[in-house]
Amino acid sequence: MAFETENIEFKSEFTEDIYKEVIAFANTDGGVIYIGIDNDGNAVGIDNVDANYTRITNGIRDAIMPDVTMFVKYTIQENKVVRITVGEGSYKPYYLKAKGLKPSGVYVRQGTSAVPASPDQIRAMIKESDGDTFETMRSMEQELTFESASRAFARYQIEFSNTKYRALGITAQGDELFTNLALLLSDQCAHTTKVAVFADEGNTKFRDSKEFGGSIFEQLENTFNYLMLCNKTTATFRGLDRIEKVDYPEEALREALLNALVHRDYSFSGSIIINVNDKEMEFISIGGLLPGLSPEDIRSGISQPRNKNLAAIFHRLHLIESYGTGIRRIFALYENCPAQPKIEVTPNTFKIILPNMNRATVAESTEGITAQMQKVLDYIKSHGQITDAELQDLLGLKKTRAFTLAKQMVEKGILHTIGRGSEKRYVVE
Length: 429
Known about the structure:
There is one protein chain. A six-stranded mixed beta sheet has the order 10-9-13-14-16-15. The chain has a four-stranded mixed beta sheet with strand order 1-2-5-4, with helices on one face. The protein is built from 15 helices and 19 strands. It has four domains: about 10-125, Methyltransferase, Cobalt-precorrin-4 Transmethylase, Domain 2; about 135-185, no CATH class; about 195-360, Heat Shock Protein 90 (2-Layer Sandwich); about 365-429, Arc Repressor Mutant, subunit A, CATH 1.10.10. About 35% of the residues lie in helices and about 20% in strands.
């Protein structure tokens, strides 16, 4: 008398449950299924052997994804028993086409039974088959929609359709399943971007916070719009002219946000964090630098994209120009600013800090300012300018002392002179 084992399964007749057994063996270590042998190991045979043999072979071919037939062999024995030999598959996980890539459709062999695989087991099989590149691995979530992505592609008049999915990396090479890249682009993307606005430079007192989800295209747009609301404008006067300067160059915010979205490590579930205070704005993305790269390399324009297909899509949509230029552009925008951007890297995070340009300029220009100088600045803030006579009256100084003070402020770059002689006046640079 024979018995079922981890690698042997008996079935007295053909039912569609046999597909689960084939899947379980293909997802584990392989095995043999005998159709026509009962649970006690007795050969009872099956009726209409030829017709059932055709049903079995066609059913296994049509009901199981990916194609498992190359790992399956069939033999009709003299006692009207069909022997199905299943080898371990090379493109796990195999699953019931009708159920999809989820525990109700994926089975593994456990003892003498085929049991649903756990989500962790499914992820492990995907990683084993697809490699360790997150964006190219098959997604655990297959019910995806792409409304935001379609709008983004349409904006740049680039086709986005089922026929383009494979070329873009949205579907896997071995079947039509969506990849993790598709999940990132989809409206069901589980990753988010969080922005926190603080009232202090230590980032301990909240003013406001927002979390943006959905497709990374939607996150890009909504996060950028919110950051621009946080990007205050400071007005100064040069004579009668009002000069407005934003705290952060718009392009620097855009490049820092794009860098965080395109290069973060999406195999981790955390969010991109953006902290804002009156002094600076910091962008923190998960995933340190790839091996062999240093912060100096990044600043020099050397780039090795972690998510190559995602970067290629952003490049195709003209959201990024070419690899490695974004960080260089940020530093170029700050070329004449007293405070420079900073890059900080840990094994698991990448941070770029953008200084508030208006705050940095004021900090530099006010260094060493005396009480008299501050009084002059307060007057100009209220009146837009000050003349030599007004300066003398304001501070109660004689002409020579007033001239010396004004000259010091001009040399420090605090004031700017307009006109000559009786028309001369001072404004804030």
